[in-house]
Amino acid sequence: MNPPEEPRSGYSRAEWVSLGVSLAILGLLVGIVIILWLNPVERPAKFDVRADRTRMEGGSYYVEFTIENKGDQTGEYVRVEGFIPVGGRREKASTTFDFVPGRSEEHGVLIFEHEPVGLAIRVVSYQIP
Fold first, then answer.
1. Which of 9, 31, 60, 89 has the fewest CB atoms within 10 Å around its CB?
2. Cross-strand bridge partners of residue 51
3. Distance (Å, rounded) from C-alpha 82 to C-alpha 91?
4. CA 119 – CA 52 distance, rounded (Å)
5. Range of the domain at 84
6. How far is C-alpha 72 from the chain's CA centre?
7. In angstroms, rounded to a whole number, what is the distance separating the alpha carbons of residues 84 and 121?
8. Is the pLDDT of residue 4 over 70?
């Protein structure tokens, strides 16, 4: 019969290394959270508008578009205008969004009387809440 083993005292080298790595990772995560909390990145609203699809109904052209706010701040009363050249003038259509939150997309439609060849869509104004 083998004599009973005595209980070990202390921790093995692998256990100390595991503890050290775990504490380092935890410290890094806590540090990142504190830095982000103390220095929040609030980029102003930045809009990107792109035409998605055009359909014709009842003699009018409906241009569906997406507006994306790539900033962190919300834009209120965001006015989007579209222009197409018609003869020597420009046909204009516009719409206004009550708000476009930061890091989000919204969809809208501009309606034209003429085929939207050479269409340009852009945000012309917004308010800062």
1. 9
2. 65
3. 8
4. 12
5. 47-127
6. 7
7. 9
8. no
Closest by CA position to 94, among listed 73, 63, 117: 63
Q: Is the pLDDT of residue 3 over 90?
A: no
Is the Cβ–Cβ distance between 62 and 46 less than 8 Å? Answer: no
32 domain-assigned: no
Query: Residue 1 — pLDDT band, cuts 50, 70, 90?
Result: low
The CATH number of whichever domain residue 108 belongs to comes to: 2.60.40.10
In a domain, 96, yes or no: yes
pLDDT given for residue 38 in this prediction = 85
Report if residue 59 sits inside a domain.
yes
Q: Give the tens place of pLDDT for each residue, 56-111.
A: 999 999 999 999 999 999 999 999 999 999 999 999 999 999 999 999 999 999 99
Higher pLDDT, 27 or 38: 27
Contacts of 111 (CB under 8 A, 6+ apart): 60, 61, 62, 63, 93
Question: Would you say residue 17 lies in a domain?
Answer: no
